[in-house]
Amino acid sequence: MLASIEAGRFDPPWVRDLVKTHGIGEDDMRRLLRKFARRGDVHQVVRDLFYGRASIAALARLVAEHAKAPNGAIGAATFRDASALGRKSAIQVLEFFDRAGYTRFHRDLHLLHADSHWHESI
Length: 122
Known about the structure:
- By secondary structure, this protein is α+β, with helices and mostly antiparallel strands.
- It has two domains: 2-53, Arc Repressor Mutant, subunit A (Orthogonal Bundle); 54-121, Winged helix-like DNA-binding domain superfamily/Winged helix DNA-binding domain (Arc Repressor Mutant, subunit A, Orthogonal Bundle).
- It is 52% helix and 16% strand.
- It contains six helices and five strands; from the N terminus they run H-H-H-E-E-H-E-H-H-E-E.
- The strands form two sheets. Strands 3-5-4 form a three-stranded antiparallel sheet.
- Helix 4 crosses helix 5 and helix 5 crosses helix 6.
């Protein structure tokens, strides 16, 4: 399963797709993915979508690279373009970074925490 998630890179398979591929029930799959998340192998971006550690680290680096000075902010459209994600996926990832404390949302922008090196610890 981890290989399937990492192979998806910025477009990992949803839980329902992993269930079909690996023949495990949805509840069992969610339990297993939450276990992987506790170990740090994956990150749960939304309920049934998990990104691999390397993919989230790469997306975090994109946020840092494209956050504009002086406030270190990135908008959803800029992140969408930099990551080549769709609008919905880009917003889901940015909201994940807000919840994780890597960024914080303020007036249509996601502000990079000045002291955050979160992506380096992934």
